[in-house]
Amino acid sequence: MNPAPSIVFFTTASGAGYGLLFWLGVLRPLGWGGGAASSLGATAVVLALALVTAGLLSSLAHLGNPQRAWRALSQWRSSWLSREGVAAVLTYPPALLFLLALWFGWPAVAAVAGPLAAAGAAATIYCTAMIYASIKPVRQWRHPLVVPGYFAMAAFSGAALLAALAAGWDAGRLLPVPAALAALGGLAAIGLKFAYWRAVDAGMPGPTRESATGLGAIGRVRPLDPPHTEQNYLLREMGFRVARKHAARLRQIALWAGFAAPAVLALLALAGAPAAPLLSLGALLALLGVLVERWLMFAEATHTVMLYYR
Amino acid sequence: MTSLPDRPAGAKKLGLVIDLDTCVGCQACATNCKEWNASGHSAPLPDFKPYSAGAEGVWFNRVHSYEAGEGEQGRTVHFPRSCLHCETPACVTVCPTGASYKRAEDGIVLVNAETCIGCGLCAWACPYGAREMDEDSGVMKKCTLCIDRIYNETIPEAQRQPACVITCPTRARHFGDLGDPDSAVSQLVARRGGQDLMPELGYGPVNKYLQPRERSSALTEAKPVEDAPTPMDIPNPLLRWMDRVLSR
Fold first, then answer.
1. Can you tell me the ipTM of this complex?
2. What is the pTM of this model?
């Protein structure tokens, strides 16, 4: 599948934004972040919403007719893409209320709006993941670890961002919880992606060229002449092959530089090393790792329509 | 609405039956499809760089050629690929806007170009590659089963067939109601054991493919006549004479 830059950026940025919003929405009512008014909390929500909004705008760039995007909110009964749009729109009001509550110091409001925003963030991530997990012709996306993978990426990159922000405010008191979450998130990301890639490499059952043409009764089927000599939309969209030849190296980059390094940096910060530079670097590496992972998610996915081609 | 319509058992299911035994891969179906639909219900069907290297465009029908089987059973099979107007088309249910829909009255799957946002998700959801994006106008295009021919009262009744069917020189394509077990196409499918493509995915394609007929054993066991040498295949005159004597 073609890793369209607008979609790769969208799921990375909005995933990190929703992850950040989720952790803040959950941690704040539990007493994390201290005093009534919280400039750290408010900054974190602003950053989260900026990432989410940038991602959503980027996803509009993927559309052939972006001016009609509002129509995508209508078919939530059947379409995960529509549900994602609805969940994203519904997450804004509690998130904005949460922002006001943090800024002006209304703990009672924050205790309600925070978890609501966190629930909206989780629901949106789930819908995004289900868009892919429900595409039957792409066997790599149907794997049961795809949805947990989306949650893990969002939770990990969100925690890394929150830890970096906390280090900038009050390292001693605020740091431990998000830094520990970032380290755990990195470990979860490594475990999940490792298991997923092993399963994908072991080969997954699915349609064959024989079942796609119905010619299996005669014997093995080989393509002889293609229907067209030049490219077409199907080959460009579903037949992407460029990154597959770099897949092994990109996987190592994602696993070690993207997931393991931020986890180690978070542990170092917990152990007393200078937190602000380490965790800022960790957050950047985490975003890079998720970006590479998302790229691979598309580039390594194969579509059944390519069974018809060579 | 992209939820599928409630269609009772026995409801009309218009579709195609494609005979892979008689298809000669001439591309006439693909060409006439392009010709009719370039100005039909889903017009235009744009071409990009049509007069230079890298020419490509939107087509509803693509004719592949395959080799199937080994040895004497091996053969070349031409394989036209187009929308199968599935009974449970995921291309419809994934559509976020309702632009993609399945008609309740005859089961034809269509796209409303006025409301399509061009997200491309339906093309991902289609295992058969039936949908191609019109990148000029940013909307998805697909086979309409020539909805503007089959119900068109301004053309003679005999021509109210999809363009691909009416143009096929070997009658490898048949159009009709596959929901009616007594229709000519249903009878044909029953007689020849018509197959679904990728049945394991559960899309319930309406279009059926008739497989190449079994080769008769007389055909595969017969030896080429060249196998038996004629006297003139023996250049040496002495050996030729001996062959003639011994053959008596």
1. 0.93
2. 0.92
